[in-house]
Each structure stands twice: as C-alpha cells, then as structure tokens.
Design a protein that fits this description.
Mean pLDDT: 78
CATH architecture of one domain: Alpha-Beta Horseshoe
Largest sheet: 20 strands, parallel
Distance between the termini: 57 Å
Number of helices: 10
Helix content: 10-25%
Low-confidence stretches: 443-454, 494-516, 527-575
Structural class: alpha/beta
Strand content: 15-25%
CATH class of one domain: Alpha Beta
CATH superfamily of one domain: Ribonuclease Inhibitor
C-alpha cells in the first residue's frame, strides 16, 4: 500500500469513506477520535488503521465493525488492551505503543492469523501463555522495560523470521534458538547475562543486531554465521579476535559497529567484497592500512569519532562511494587519491586538524555537501571553486581571514556557514553572490551587511525575506532606507509574481500592531490570497498563501520563510 493511498485527514476520508483503505489519525482524541468513532461503520473497506492519539485511553468497541481490518497500529495511553480485540479475526499486524500498558489479554493467542506483533510498554511484567501458541507469527518485537523473565515457550513460535527483544530487566535469555529454524533477523538489546549458545547455530541468519550486552561475546562463534548480510554491534565487550572473525563474514553487506573497542582493521577486511554500508564509530580506531580497503560497492562509509591520524590512499578504489564521514578524528592531511571518488556526494570532515584539502578534490564533480568545520583551515580551499554541484558548505570554526567572490561556485550553492572565523571581506560582487544563497551564517560583528549591500540597487534583487530583513540591521543609513522602502512595497503587494513570496510568514510584535495586521489582511484578500492568523505568547504569526488550507503551523513545518519579531521591530516602530 503506497503513501498515496493513505488518508491523514478525517475530513478528507469522510468525503468518500467507502474508498478508504488506509487511514492515519494523529493529534488529540477530542479533535479526531470522537468524530471517527461515531462513523467507523462507513469505512467498510478499511484495511490499515494508524492512531497516534496521545490522550487515547481506551479503544472503542466500534472497531469490530471494520470487517476487513488487517493492520492496527496505535500510540496511546491505554493501561489495558480489551479482550474483545481478539474478535478482529482478519488482523494480521498489531503494533501497540502505550507506555502505561500493564498487561496483554490472556486470550491474545486467539488472534490466530496474526503475523506481526510489536509491543512497547513500560509496566508489563509478564506475558500471557497464549501468546506462544501463535503458529502464524512471523515477527515479534518486544520493548518491555520491566519484564523480568521471558518464557522458554518462545521456542514454540516456530514460524518466527524476525525476533527483536529489548527488555532491560531480563536477567537471562532462554536458550530457544535451536528450534527457531526460520529466523532470518535477530536483535537482542540490554541483556545482562550470556548470549544463548544456540544463537550461533543459526547458519541461515541474515541480520544480527546486538547492543549493550554486558557479557563478553564468544567472538570465535561468529565464524558460524556464514550467511550474515547485516551485522550491528553497539556498545558490547569484545577481544582481540573480534576484527579477524568479522573479516571472515564474506557475505556481509552492512557493518555497523558503534562504541566497541576495535583499534585496528585487519588486512583480511579486504575479503569483504559485498559491503555496501560501513559504520565504525567510537571504536578507538587508530589505523586503517591500505591493504585492508576492500574492493567493494560501498556507498556509505563512516569512521567518525575514532583516533585516525591518516586515511588510506586506497580509498580511491571505492568507486561507488557516495557518503564519507571521517569527522572527529586526528587527521592533519587527506590523501590526494580521494579526488578520484567521482560519485561522492557528501564529505564530512569536521572536528579534525586539517589546514587545507588537496587540489585534487576539484575532481569531485558530484559533491553536494562539504563540511570542514572545526579545523585549522586558513583559506577557503581553492578546490572549492571547481565543485560545480556543491550546495552546502560548512566552514564554521576555522581560521579563515579573507573571502572573495571567486573562491566559491555560486551556481548551486544554497547554504554557506562561516561563523567563528576572523573574516575580512574582499570586494568584487560578493553581495550579489550572497543574494542567491538560501542560508548563510556569519559573525555580523565582523561581516557587516553594510559591506555586502553598500550598493543600494541590490535591494531590489533581494528575493529572500530573511536577507532583506538583515539589510535593516546595517549601520549604513542609505541601505536601511532603501530596505525599508522595499519592504513596505512588498507588504503592499505580496503576490506580485516577481516577488516570489508565496507562503512567507510575517511576525508582528504585540497587540499595538493589530492595525497593521488588519491592513495586511486587506492587501492579501484583495489579491485573491488566503489569510491565516495564530496567536502565541510572544508574537502574532501571520501566514499568507495562495493555496487554501495552509495555516501558519503548516507553513512553519514546510520550512517557509520566517521573519523573527526582533528583525521587524525597528521597522514597525517607524525607526
């Protein structure tokens, strides 16, 4: 079922309830549920119902009038799940997220067609025996914060393919895996005792996730998991054999190691030729030898938060690499061979000791994001000027002293971060270049908008409200005057095609400006627009749009332009 088939609005769904198969309601019970529960019978073809209603305390029995309901997901405040839920005979998927829930119905096993069951609750201390009689159950996920014991009858769920257990109070885990031959995916979290030995007999296992296991892993057993494609190990105890054992899992496509002591990557790592995603983070990694780089279709590689002082030049062999994150290491230089990564789109280098990047980086023709923040860069790298696809450049917290327009590729650049640099500004059309940026940050005390906008004719080209408002903050009186006049012009004609201000949000300070709000409303409605108004404790938010149904809250979430009250204060006071 695609997202296009999903109704997120009750009002929209009620226009044709017979045709609705997937309904998702969120918010308050008072706003949504009272209307829906009285009209449930109209949704005769509803197959999937999702309820994210934070003050829902009980499920109404009217749900039984949904004859085709197959999937029920709810986030609520239920303390008890009603026993009549087992009468939903066609239910295949049940997802329960309710922190006050204290128990599951004793007869839950009567949901004989159930294939997936997920329960997230704070106060459940035992599970009903009937749960372990669900012969069709293929996926079981239990996040039960106070469950002290898990029954060995778990081994009766012989159809299980996915088992995900996160129960921090479990003192031990039953040795049941020998009979769960269908398992393809296992996730065990916060287990204080030894991992059951039968787990290592699952030679057909495709995915294994272990995190916060208090006992040391029997690393030698990893050799048995010869069909493993995804391995995630987070915050567990390991030994020196650990990296060598992983290097033998030749079918691995995803390796995710966080907070485990690794320190080294063995040369046998090059045997992992199927790898697609690699995350080795916070592992104390000090060395990555050239010979360990696998010739594999890796698309995402993260080595952040380690102790690497250099990177292997053989990284250039990762022809399909799209994202590389080596932030928070001890890098003082980068291998020139990285310039051969023709498919690289995101390169994250913040928190190192870099003074520059190699000239060869100019060959990264697909690079869209470059983050070199918090380094020791003294000049904007000359390679940046050739990065024609660059959209986001982070240069915060460096030692950059000079800046001129020819240092950067302006065609696609949308975000430029330059805070905490001892900048002085070069001339040469920098103001015009900044006009096309969607976002930029500087220390205004060092980078004066008066320098950027000293040519007052630029005001007419300011297509972005935030940039225009910044022009009001400068000390140059000619710039301020021109900006004020242009802002007034925009407010009077908000829907002129050349203004590009559809969906902008204007914030007026306090009740004294209600007259201005009413004036704005008249301007908007006279242009065929729709006027919305929301009151907050510190300001009145006004959104205007040419599309109905887009209130200020929705506009904010859609990342439309925002003018902060402090920016407009001087203008509204007639300064």
């Amino acid at each position: 079922m695609s997202d296009a088939d999903t109704y997120n609005s009750l009002a929209a769904a009620l226009e044709n309830p017979i045709g609705v198969t997937h309904l998702k309601l969120s918010g308050s019970v008072k706003l949504e549920w009272s209307s829906f529960s009285s009209q449930i019978k109209k949704f005769t073809k509803l197959k999937k119902l999702e309820l994210d209603l934070w003050d829902l305390t009980q499920l109404p029995q009217e749900l039984l009038s949904l004859p085709q309901l197959q999937s029920l997901h709810f986030t609520a405040k239920l303390e008890q799940l009603p026993s009549w839920i087992t009468n939903l005979s066609n239910l295949r998927h049940l997802n329960i997220d309710s922190y006050p829930l204290r128990s599951l119905p004793d007869n839950i096993g009567e949901l004989s067609q159930l294939e997936t069951l997920s329960v997230n609750a704070n106060f459940i201390t035992s599970l009903p025996k009937s749960l372990f009689s669900m012969k069709n159950l293929r996926e079981l996920k239990l996040t039960l914060w106070k469950l002290p014991k898990l029954s060995a009858e778990l081994e009766c769920l012989t159809s299980l393919q996915t088992l995900d257990i996160h129960c921090p109070k479990l003192s031990s885990f039953p040795d049941v895996f020998a009979k769960l031959h269908q398992l393809k995916s296992v996730c065990l979290a916060a287990i204080s005792d030894q991992i059951p030995s039968s787990l290592w007999s699952l030679s057909n296992l495709n995915q294994l996730c272990l995190w916060r296991i208090n006992r040391a892993l029997p690393v030698s057993r990893f050799y048995n998991l010869c069909n493993l494609k995804s391995l995630k190990l987070w915050f567990i105890n390991t030994d020196d054999e650990f990296p060598d054992a992983i290097a033998e899992l030749k079918k691995l496509e995803e390796l995710n190691i966080i907070g485990c002591t690794l320190k080294r990557i063995p040369e046998k790592f090059s045997n992992l030729t199927q790898l697609n995603k690699v995350y080795i983070q916070g592992a104390g990694l000090t060395d990555f030898p050239d010979a360990a780089v696998p010739v594999a279709p890796i698309q995402k590689l993260s080595l952040c938060s380690n102790a690497l002082s250099s990177l292997p030049d053989e990284l250039r062999l990762l022809e399909k690499l799209e994202e590389l994150n080596v932030s928070k290491n001890r890098l003082t230089s980068l291998p020139a061979g990285m310039g051969d990564l023709k498919n690289l789109k995101k390169l994250t280098l913040f928190g190192n000791c870099l003074k520059t990047v190699p000239e060869e980086f100019s060959g990264l023709s697909k690079l869209e994001l470059l983050d070199i923040a918090d380094n020791k860069i003294t000049d904007i790298p000359s390679a940046c000027a050739s990065l024609s696809s660059l959209r986001i450049l982070h240069l915060n917290q460096n030692q950059i002293e000079s800046f001129s327009v020819d240092m950067l590729p302006w065609e696609n650049l949308k975000t430029l971060l330059l805070k905490n640099n001892p900048l002085t500004i070069g001339r040469g059309g920098l103001g015009r270049s900044l006009l096309q940026l969607k976002n930029y940050e500087t220390e205004l005390c060092r980078l004066s908008m008066a320098l950027l906008l000293e040519d007052t004719t630029l005001i007419e080209h300011l297509g972005s409200i935030p940039l225009l408002v910044k022009a009001l903050d400068v000390s140059n009186p000619a710039v301020r005057k021109q900006a004020l006049l242009y802002l007034e012009k925009i407010l009077k004609n908000p829907f002129q095609k050349d203004q590009k201000l559809e969906g902008a949000i204007i914030v007026f300070l306090g009740s004294p400006w209600l007259f201005e709000i009413d004036k704005m409303r008249r301007f908007i409605t006279s242009k065929g627009g729709f006027f919305y108004r929301e009151f907050r404790s510190d300001a009145n938010y006004i959104a205007f749009s040419q599309k109905p149904g887009e209130g200020a809250t929705k506009a904010l979430s859609a990342k439309m332009h925002i003018i902060h009250p402090s920016h407009l204060k001087s203008f509204m006071l007639g300064d």
